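FAQ: What does the model actually see?

It sees only this:
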Amino acid sequence: MDYFRPIAMTDAARPEGALPLAGGWCWFDRAERLTRAGSQGLVAAADLPGEVRGRLTAPRAAFAGLTLDRPRLMGILNVTPDSFSDGGRFDAPDAALAHARGMAEAGADILDIGGESTRPGSAEVEPGDEIRRTAPVIGALIAGGLGMPISIDTRKSEVARAALDAGAAIVNDVAALDYDPDLAALVATRGVPVCLMHAQGTPATMQDDPRYDDVLLDVYDFLAARIAAAEAAGIARDRIVVDPGIGFGKTVAHNLALIRGLSLFHGLGCAVLLGASRKRFIGTLGGGAAAGQADRRGPGTIAVTLAGVAQGVQVHRVHDTLETRQALRLWQAVTLGEEEP
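And it is asked to produce this:
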């Protein structure tokens, strides 16, 4: 099987015949042809198979009402006592609400609310506890007039149902609809967007010696299969966002290979989400205090985020919304000539 990784470019000097990447801010005039035997060299964009070219170039549908012709920030709100990054800081309702409003003011486009930690080694949370942590916060934010879509970060249909009833507009499932057999039907019935993420193993076991034949192609094939399963359940492809699952059953080398090859995932015909914020590999590579303290990984997170933006990734799940928004505005101004107020 052939895979095609578009060589994403952003330079203003765009050659004739270059194609838009996923209808966004990047363009490409070549793609690397990959097989299980390795790289097979470059192919001109004009010579790509028609179906491949179509999926790589087609503008992505709006995500919960947000156009994807520019990068979007998904602010993280963990209402858990044991999150790897900010466990316990926002599990009190007042603190959660204040932090959510702060992220909105700082430039988040979406809020992603989770009540179950998926850090390496974490244990499963009962659905009732997860609902009690998330649904009241979502309801209070909606009642308070929050003007942005809210995503529920859960693997469980009961939790997703309660969140959607409270006003959430997106389901973000780290198990790609493969944990709870009822979740796909719920997403299809409610007609909401869903994010399908790759993970190897469960949160409790995922970092126990993860192995791949070819991490980039293995993750691509997994996501292609989960998209097909979602479509079979009645979820349209234009309501699906894919996430390669940085840090979920991956070594440092696996994470870096996925980040270098992010543009490959545009070939799935879906918007792409990157969730690298404060992950352990950033501390490992960044060194210093960041190695042991997740909240000291902001600069490294921004570096990885901008690497994703340069490959056309549309949605970025981050903790440090204010800092990332500032970095993104500067990147857009310097690279694209776009000056936001």
